Amino acid sequence: MRRTRAFTLVELLVVVGIIGILAGMLVPYFVTATKDVEGKVCMSNLRNLGTGVQLYRQQDDQRWPWIPNVSSDFSQVATGTNRDKDPWENPENPGERSITAVMFLLVRDLQPPGLFVCPSDEGASEDTRTRWDHDANEDTPSAFYWDFASERNVSYSWQAPVKRGEKYVNGLSDVDPAAVVLGERTPGSFDPSWQPTAMTERMSGDGIRHNMSRNHRGGKVINVLRVDMSVTQRKRPDIGLDHDNIYTASGKKQVGSREATSLDLAQHLSPADTFLIGPVGESGGDDEQP
């Protein structure tokens, strides 16, 4: 009777070892492929948000989304502040507003809140309580909403208001089409103690990533939406007009500066000096989501 030869223990261990080596070689590939897909979804989100901006402007005499704000420290107002208070009830005293309230105007204009969540932004989640009208559901509040519930609902930062005299205004109406209006959330929203460093042409990889949003691959790439509604991906943050760092204010009236390291909103004197801010803090209160 013919016997079937079985694997020896040594041969079995060799096969298991080979499988382990192959798995080790393939895992990084699959991780990279997943990150690439997430990056493409993020860029698609920004393109759709750009479409939302265009639709909003078509319905509002070409005005950019904007909510009046009386706070002298707009950049530090937590997302969700005055979420239930209509700023137009008393425009002279609309109350403090987070920069994300400006973005929420697109949600009120029927853009899905999920567009504001980057798939690579760990911990971010869609705002599922985005009421902007009344209905018969007794489990939801009757108030109109004017902001996201939490900073965790937003993965992107918006062009900061411009200081003109003693007021902060929306300066996007006359800005260069190549200026950045929306992009990955600022490094400061991940680490409140973050301080930018001056950018240089031959900066090290670690130095560049220190100044980048953490949304993608630990700060290796960022996606941005420009005023002309084009979406691009870059590996450095100094991609504003005149190579200014899009996460800092330069204090110059006409153009930005690659070396700028200011996070002071009062130093944002022109939209040509791109300065993306938000989201900030936790909103707290009943609307905070788990």
Overall residue-averaged pLDDT value: 84
Largest sheet report: 5 strands, antiparallel
State the low-pLDDT regions, or none: 29-33, 283-290
N- and C-termini, Cα separation? 68 Å
Précis, in short:
Helix content is 23%, strand content 9%.
Question: What do these coordinates show?
Answer:
The protein has a five-stranded antiparallel beta sheet, with helices on one face. A two-stranded antiparallel sheet has the order 2-3. Mean pLDDT is 84; it is low at 29-33 and 283-290. The chain is an alpha+beta fold and 290 residues long. The protein is globular. The chain has one domain. It has three helices and seven strands; from the N terminus they run ααββββαβββ. The longest helix has 51 residues, at 9-59. It has helices spanning 9-59, 100-108, 205-210, and strands at 156-159, 162-164, 167-169, 180-184, 222-226, 231-234, 276-277. Helix content is 23%, strand content 9%.
